[in-house]
Amino acid sequence: MKRYVFLIAYEPGGFEQAAAEVQQSYFTAHEAFSTYVAEHGNELSSAALADTDTATTVRHLDGAKSVTDGPFVETVEMIGGYYDVELPDMDHAIAAAAILPPAYAVEIRPTITITA
Fold first, then answer.
1. What was the pLDDT predicted at 3?
2. Which of 111, 85, 79, 80 is nearest to 33 (CA)?
3. pLDDT of residue 72
């Protein structure tokens, strides 16, 4: 099994303003995603993230720590959640990502092991 992190990006505000049946379709898609992953691998963790206006960014600039409110970069889309899963290969990861709501841009990133 390989480990993948799915970063879910979307335009802010769309879900909150959507009709109840559209919101339910999102929940249904996430349930289908979790079912697919369970059938083919393992879901290690997942979470929805608070809006970007709650973010804090830490940088090291010229040897000093800089802490600022807000996201790292300003974009139209925000990362709103993630899944950390184990699946057999990238083909399965792509198939799983395709199950999520079509309003999402899903970035799939394989994890790597860093050794000292």
1. 98
2. 85
3. 56
